[in-house]
Amino acid sequence: MKRIYLARDLTQAQLVVNLLEQQFIPAKIENAHQSSGLGELAVSYPEVWLTREPDAERARSIIAGFEAQARSQVADTICPECEEINPANFEWCWACKADLS
Ligand SMILES: [Zn+2]
Questions:
Q1: Count of C-beta atoms within a 10 Å radius of residue 32
Q2: pLDDT above 90 (res 68)
Q3: Which CATH architecture has domain 2-75?
Q4: Average pLDDT over residues 2-22
């Protein structure tokens, strides 16, 4: 067993596990039950663990791709012409074809 990823929340952890399993890399979520009890000092985040350590290198590159995609989704671009929201990697507005670069 090897820990490969510390997720922000359970949804993100599950997304990573799904991605890995699509590539035939068995993985599971640990620490999924987050305690919100009073007096709890440390916030625990869900962890993604690999069943087989030799998968770590492939898993890391899959996760790197996932993170790059997640970042580009966060940084949307608003078209200066029509104010439609475009993904950050778009060079032209999908709605009015204005230049976004
Ligand atoms: Zn536009």
A1: 14
A2: no
A3: 2-Layer Sandwich (3.30)
A4: 93
